[in-house]
Amino acid sequence: MVKRLKNAALGFDIAALEVARDLTRELSQPERLARLLEQLQRAVPFDAAAILLCQGKELAPVAALGLPREIMGRRFIPAEHPRLAAILGTKTGVVFDSDDPRPDPYDGMLFEGDVDETTSVHSCMGSRLTIGEEIFGVLTVDAVGPDRFTPELVERFWVFAALAAAALQVGRQIESLQEKVHRGEEIVSLLSHRNPVELIGESRLMRRLDDEMQIVAKSDLAVLVTGETGTGKELVAHRLHDRSLRCGKPMVHVNCAALPESIAESELFGHVKGAFTGAIQDRMGKFELAEGGTLFLDEIGELPLLIQAKLLRAIQFGEIQRVGSDRSERVDVRLIAATNRDLEVEVSEGRFREDLFHRISVYPIQVPALRDRLDDIDLLSGFFLERHRGKLGTKPLRLSPHALEDLKSYTWPGNVRELEHVLMRAALRAQTRGDGTSKWVILESADLSLPTEIGSSFGTDLTLATREFQANLITRALAACNQNYSEAARTLGVDRSNLHRLAKRLELS
Predict the structure, then answer these.
(1) Domains defined for the chain, CATH in brackets
(2) Is the pTM of this model over 0.90?
C-alpha cells in the first residue's frame, strides 16, 4: 500500500514537472493543451477531460481527451448546461455526486462508436480557470462508474487545475507576444473581441482559406469573396473585418439582391431632404455609415448597371454624392464584396462592368464547397447540433457512426447551410423516437432523409439517368430561349449562375 501511494505521488510530481517544462518549449497552443491533459491523466485517472474557454456567453472546447472529435465543434451555453454553470459559479470547484440529477454535457460521448446507458457519466468534477479576477474557462474530468474520484484524487485535481490555469496564462502571454511580432499591435483588439466570428473547419482547404484571409486582412485592398450559395461567404467577410485594422469601426452589410433599383442609389449614397417624394429629411447612406470601417456588399452581382457606374466612382475616387445634392463628400471605407455568380461570365455577357469587376477583385478569395472539405463534417455537425439543441430545447444530441458516414458521403449541393438544415430537421425527427428515458438523442441515418446520391449509389444507373434528364431539360430550355441563360434560368426556376455551373458540370456546350 505504501509503495503504491509513493508511486502515485511520484506520478503526480512528474506530471506537474512536465507541465512546468512545457512552458519553455516551442509548442503551439493546441499542442500545449493536449499535453497538459495527458499529464493530468497521469495524476488523476479519468475517462474523459476537456478544457473549455470563454467566448462571449459560450464555452468553446479547445482541448479534449477521451471524447469524440466532434466535441471540438460544439459550443456550450452555461445557462443550458447546469453542471458547467455550477463550475463557473464557485471558486473552489465542484465534485458532483454520482446520483446528481443535473445532466452532464458529455453524456453519451465518452466512447467512440455505439453508445447506450452504460456509458453514461457517473463521476464528474470540474474547476473554473482564472487569471486574476478574470474567469477564462473551465477544466472538467469525467469517469464511468460511481465514486471514481477519491478525496486524494480530488485534492490533486484542485492543485492541477491551478497549475493548468498558470500554464494557460503563460501560454496565452507567449501567444499574444508572438501575434504582436507577426501581426502588429492591432491583434490585441482581435483577441479581446467579445463575439468572434467562427469558421468551423480544420481541413487543408480551410487552413488555406485562413492563410489567405490572414494575408489580406490588415491591408485596405478590396476583396471579392466568391463561392457557391451556402458556403459561408458572409462569415469570411466578417472575419476579414475582425482581423483588419478597422475592426474597432463599424462593418456595414448591404444585401444588393434586396435593393430595388429605385432606392439603391439612396441606400448606398444617401439623399438630401426633398430629393424625391418621401425624402422628408437628410439621410446618410451606407458609405457614410461605414466611415473608417468596412462596407460589405453581398450579392454584388445583382446590382443594376446604372448603380454599378456610380459605385465605381465612389471606389475609384473615394467620393460620394447624396441623391439631390450637388456637393461631393470624401469617404474612407474598405470594400469587401461577395457573390455566387461568375462575374467574368457576367462581364462577357454585358451584365457587369469590367472596370468595376477589376476594382472590387484586387484580392479574390474563393470559399470552398462543403463537398471539397468533407473532413470538416464532424466538426460542423457538432457545432450545429449543440447550437440547435439549445434552440429546440432537446436532450443532448449525437450522431450515430452510420449517420456520420452518410453525411460524409453526400455531395452537399446546398453546402454548409444545407448541412445545418438537415441536422436541424433530423434532431426534430429523432426526439420523437424512443420511450423518453434516454439521457440523450442519437440521430440515425433515417433521421437525415438525405437524397439517394449518398454512398455507393453515386455513379449507378439512377444517377446517370438523372444526369441525362437534367441535360435534356436544360438543352430544351436553352433552345426555347435562343440560348439566353437568364431566360432559361427563369423558365427552370433556378439561379442563372447555378444553371451555368450545372451546364458546365454536365459538359453541355
Answers:
(1) 2-183 (3.30.450.40), 204-366 (3.40.50.300), 373-451 (1.10.8.60), 461-505 (1.10.10)
(2) no
